[in-house]
Known about the structure:
NON-INTRINSIC ABC protein 6, 15 helices, alpha/beta, ten-stranded mixed beta sheet, SUF_FeS_clus_asmbl_SufBD_core, 24% helix, SufBD_N, SUF_FeS_clus_asmbl_SufBD_sf
Amino acid sequence: MPALAIIPQIRTPITIKPKIKHKQKQKPKSFSLSTTPITQASFSDPFVLQLAETLEDSLSPSVSLQRLRDSSSESLLSTSWPSRKDEPFRFTDTSFIRLSQIIPITKPPQFDYLPSINGDTLLPNIVIADGFVLNSMSRLSTLPDGVYVGSLLSDSSDRIAERVLEFVGDFEWGDLFWSINGIGAHDMTVVYVPAGVKVENPIHFKYVSVEGGEKGSKKLPVSNPRVFVVVEEGGEVGIIEEFVSKEGNDDRYYWANPVLEVVIGKGAKVRHSYVQSQSLNSAHIKWTAVRQEAASTYELVEVSTGGKLSRHNLHVQQLGPDTATELSTFHLSVGDQTQDLHSRLILDHPRGRSQQLHKCIVAHSQGQAVFDGNVKVNRYAQQTDAGQLTRSLLLEPRATVNVKPNLQIIADDVKCSHGAAISDLEETQLFYFQARGIDLETARKALVFSFGAESFHSSRCPFYKTTIRYKETHFLLISCNSSTSKTSSSTKPSQNLSESPNPKNPSSSDHLKPLSATTLTTKDHQAQLLSKPKSTRVNPTRPKRSVLSLQRLKRSLYPYNPQIKELKLFAKKLNDCGSGENEFVSLLETFPYPPTKENALLILNSLRAWQKTSFLQLGQDP
């Protein structure tokens, strides 16, 4: 019997003007794939389509990146611009980008800008300006044999290109911004480490944003740098990503939309440091996708302090047993900023281990921090050890933080834990400093600095410990000064930032003076030792927790009445008397207040044993 040929019938859609009647429901029509045309406009957001077309027109054709661009274009056809109604963006407002005039950057920066963005000369480094690799500013001569760092389109060998293209375009967890990068990336920077090769010094990627809109302008230049890291079996490498603005562009408007993909082979190790300190008027939305094979290790240390809108989408998937993942992140908001971290960790195999520590400080009344951490332990991930902890510090009355830790466990033989805490500085800790003669402002600085420094203290990279930590110390102490601005009326600093011509905006040298050089205040230290405030239990879930703390800090240093203060000082004089009873009795005759029972007990508790005996005997005499 001959096979039947089925020819689908495609009907021309007829535009019918809808008739809407009040309180009348229409019968739903049947849906047929063969008769209903599927158009792009029925699924897509017009703004997203226009943005995708603009990015496509700004690119030159590339055979190597065609698969990535095709998959990204297909994804954008069914994706709308995120809003606050979408669950992943419920606390993140992206209207700042949508309401701007987005302009793709089509060429590298001019030569006049190059001397101000030269890379670090101590480490293997590569400079990427506005998404374009600057070979003249990069230094890669010290890499071991077989290690390749460079462009996928220009100098990479066919073997490396084929290896990288095996993974390009098959990531299924990306969102709108992942697809925008895929369709707008001019090139792809590749890091390839062969099997068994260990790169001693970390490779420093310096991303510099040169183009930017002026203040008050709606122009928003966008760059889409993309980096792909492949570490074969037994290899080891360190990656440092540093995002900065060109000198003098600290107030420019631009949008950085980078993507980093990491593939870690069996038994390999990647140490990743990510530092973001871009303009406070910029948008920075980054994607990091990591795939770990069996017995591999991935370590991340992240510090994010810049950007008006900063969001990091972190996705880590363990694809083999005995895999280790360590994530340590720190976010700081010192202005009208939104610092957002969305992390997803998927464990699918036995004996996996993961530890995540996230800390954030909000030191501005309009600042906001968001943490959405998802750890999923699937059925076959037995004997897994997973931990997640997030701690947030609010230093201003209207500072906001939204925390959503999520631990999904399907396996039954696991050791998992997670926790979250949001608070202001503890008064008991502040009192601990004051009881040892340290003024209030210095105590707050020390506590805020130690809170943030804990998250990036574990970095083993020498460059990170010197250069980058210097920058983050600067931002941490700025947040300290912001937190003490409202309490400076009750406790004045002694050494000081008042020497700066502008106390509200002190210089870096003033910020980075060591805490040990701070002198004590000239106030009465006896009063400081007795200035412990009354303990008041405050529900941490109540709004404006910081307001209550500031009100308690504004109390006087000596909460007792003058009579009790004078009696305590008189008891101290009695206690300082020698062993002579006559001297003790003569001094006791100058009792400042009537010898009531309450006053006598207050004095008695501060005396020595023989003084108590004499005091009681004198009290029994008529």
